[in-house]
Write a structure and sequence with these properties.
Distance between the termini of chain A: 21 Å
Helix content of chain B: 25-40%
CATH topology of chain B: Mth169, Chain: A
Oligomer: heterodimer
CATH superfamily of chain B: Phosphoribosylformylglycinamidine synthase subunit PurS
Number of helices of chain B: 2
Shape of chain A: globular
CATH architecture of chain B: 2-Layer Sandwich
CATH topology of chain A: Rossmann fold
Largest sheet of chain B: 3 strands, antiparallel
Order of helices and strands of chain B: EHEHE
CATH class of chain B: Alpha Beta
Structural class of chain A: alpha/beta
Shape of chain B: elongated
Chain lengths: 231, 80
């Protein structure tokens, strides 16, 4: 029996370049992706949001710093405040941090090199909406491709985040110098997740790994549940 | 008025750009110590009152020009 396809928005900023991959992967995993332009004031009737990877506004000033002022981001903020599931991938993670929807900030890689390869990340929390398909302690192989993926929080903020259990993914082999090997964090409520690895590039074994599907399928599940709850 | 905003990586924040610059300068034979790389933003302001201009630029820094987690800023004002 085919399940209902929940609508999930994929927001395109000028300079986004993984929006179509994200839409393709979401469709492959049973969702109905809807592309949203950064100038749109409102989201269409969706029950999930993806902020894709890329280089929004050319990474001018700081990565993600300009995109956060896009009209669509205000709508994403409202959607997140209502408890809607939001996933930020790479540049999307950077945008969520700059927008204050996620804690910390992404800085240039310690090596100053652009890193493009598979990494292994450990799932620290499998009880968030966006990691529900994972098991705690599971290791996922997912590619990264970024020049500014070094997540940073000062000691005080990091302590607060560990106390509140907001660290969701950690690198097994830290590629970029992120403090405490952090690869993904969520907000307090657990409905907004940002991560540097690209799950949309790892949903088919043909592409080397299908582990990204654990994350994206969790989002599809969360969107489907939300849709059912709102009917 | 004109304002010059100097944005710097906060003390204690790892600055790989600064480290790369430092290494290159040493390679050129300049005996430099630590190098840190920041950003300069020059602004033309409509405000004519210095106090008002400074307050406005401070708000700009807090909202956009600097990320308080990792960057500090300094504002210099000059008459246009």
């Amino acid at each position: 029996m085919s399940q209902h396809r929940p609508k999930i928005a994929v927001v395109t900023f000028p300079g986004s370049n993984d929006d179509r991959d994200a839409a393709w992967a979401l469709h492959a995993l049973g969702a109905d992706p809807v592309t949203v332009w950064h100038r749109d004031d409102d989201l269409p009737d969706v029950s999930g949001v993806v902020l894709p990877g890329g280089f929004s506004y050319g990474d001018y000033l700081r990565c993600g710093a300009i995109a956060r002022f896009a009209p669509a981001m205000e709508a994403v903020g409202r959607f997140a405040a209502e408890g809607g599931p939001v996933l930020g991938i790479c540049n999307g993670f950077q945008v969520l941090c700059e927008a204050g929807l996620l804690p910390g900030v992404l800085r240039p890689n310690r090596s100053l090199e652009f890193i493009c390869r598979d990494v292994r990340v450990r799932v620290e929390r499998a009880d968030t909406k966006l990691t529900a398909r994972c098991t705690a302690g599971q290791t996922l192989t997912i590619p990264v491709k970024h020049g500014e993926g070094c997540w940073y929080a000062d000691d005080e903020l990091y302590r607060e985040l560990t106390d509140l259990d907001q660290i969701v993914l950690r690198y097994e082999d830290n590629p970029n110098g992120a403090v405490h090997d952090v690869a993904g964090v969520c907000n307090r409520e657990g409905n907004v997740l940002g991560l540097m690895p690209h799950p949309e590039h790892a949903v088919d074994p043909l592409l080397g790994s299908a582990d990204g599907a654990f994350i994206l399928a969790s989002l599809v599940d969360a969107a489907r549940e939300r849709e059912a709850a709102l009917v | 008025m004109r304002a010059t905003v100097l944005v710097r990586p906060k003390e204690g924040i790892l600055d790989p750009q600064g480290q790369a610059v430092e290494g290159s300068l040493r390679q050129l034979g300049f005996p430099v110590g630590e190098a840190r790389v920041g950003r300069v933003v020059d602004l033309e302001l409509e405000a004519s009152d210095a106090e008002q201009a400074r307050a406005e630029v401070e708000r700009m820094c807090e909202q956009l020009l600097a990320n308080p987690l990792i960057e500090s800023f300094e504002i210099e004002l000059t008459e246009a």
